[in-house]
Structures are given as structure tokens and as C-alpha cells.
Amino acid sequence: MRRVPTSSPSSTGVSAPAAPAPVAPVAPVAPRVHLALAALVACLLVAGCSAATTHAHATTRELPPRSLVLRAREGREPAADARGRAVVAFAAGQLGHRYCWGGTGPSCFDCSGLVRSAWESAGVELPRTSGAMGTALEEVPLDEVRAGDILWWPGHVGIYAGDGWSIEALDSRHGVVRRAASNPYRALRPRG
Q1: How far apart (Å, rounded) are the C-alpha atoms in residues 10 and 89?
Q2: For a tag site, which of 28, 117, 155, 187 has the least CB within 10 Å?
Q3: From CA 23, how far away is CA 20, in angstroms rounded?
Q4: How many CB atoms lie within 10 A of CB 162?
Q5: Overall pTM surpassing 0.90 (yes/no)
Q6: Where does the chain show beta strands of DSSP type E?
Q7: pLDDT tens for residues 38-54?
Q8: Kind of pairing between the strands at 165-169 and 186-189
């Protein structure tokens, strides 16, 4: 058997490539390790997203979950102004409409499309997305929320309807619904 040198030029003047180093066999990774890694990545992604959200804005989360509902039951709710009542009236008129991503009415809405359309009916123009609303609008303490105010969660918005209820374009299964206003992340009130 003849050996070919790897560092000297061949008859064509080009060096032959060096032989690859031997590779040790790799043991297969157990499925449990894959699951653990996937869980770790998911946790990091969630923590990263929520961390970015909380650092972008100070929150007014002074009230425990369901406190808007409890406050209404106790009769301690601030009175709505005429603009807030108009916003709630528009939103209530959309109950039962279907949800559609990017929808601004009149036949279907997404969450920010419903909020934006309701406020436009009262003469106030808002940003199009829930994220833009969270950035642009004035935040109010949750204990001062009144009918017509915007309840904000990361990636979702709804309208506080008063008496512990919110009106939201929830999802494609439920459409525009009225549900208990429990545990909003922030509350926003447009100026104007």
C-alpha cells in the first residue's frame, strides 16, 4: 500500500487536503434532556418578554386581582364622563360580533380594533395596536379606573364597561364579549 503525503504538492502542483481527524461516536441525547432544554428556552423567552415589558413602563398594579369587580360590588366606582359612556355604548353595540385578526369593524374586530373604533366613535383617534396604545396613552392608577378606560395586558386591550365588567374582542372562538374585568396589567385613558 502506497502512502500519499498530505503536505507535499501533487503532480498538478496542488497540495492534497489533510486527512480528517477521527470523530468519537456521540451518545444519543435522551428525550428528557430535549424536553428540559425546551422548557428552559420557553422560560427564558417568557421572562425576557415580560422583563422588557415591565422595564418599558412603570406599572400601576396596586390592586389585587379581581379588585375592579370587588370595588364595583362595594359601590366605590368613580363616575364615568360623557365620553366614557359613549365609548362603552359603542362597544356594547358590538357584543356578539366575530373576532378577526386586524379587524376594525363593522362586521368583525380584533382587540385593538374594537378599542380604537369605540374611541373614534367618541371623537378620539388612537394608535392602531395594543402595544402602541400602551406606549402612547396616559396611564391611570387601577384604583381610579372608570367606564370607558382601556384595560391593557401585554398584547391585548379591552374597554372597562363599569360595574366590574370589560368588553373585549377576545379571540376567534368567542368574538366580542363582556366578561369580568379581572387582573388587568395596566389602565390607560386617552386625552382629548
Answers
A1: 87
A2: 28
A3: 9
A4: 22
A5: no
A6: 98-99, 108-109, 138-140, 150-153, 156-162, 165-169, 176-180, 186-189
A7: 444 333 333 222 223 33
A8: unpaired
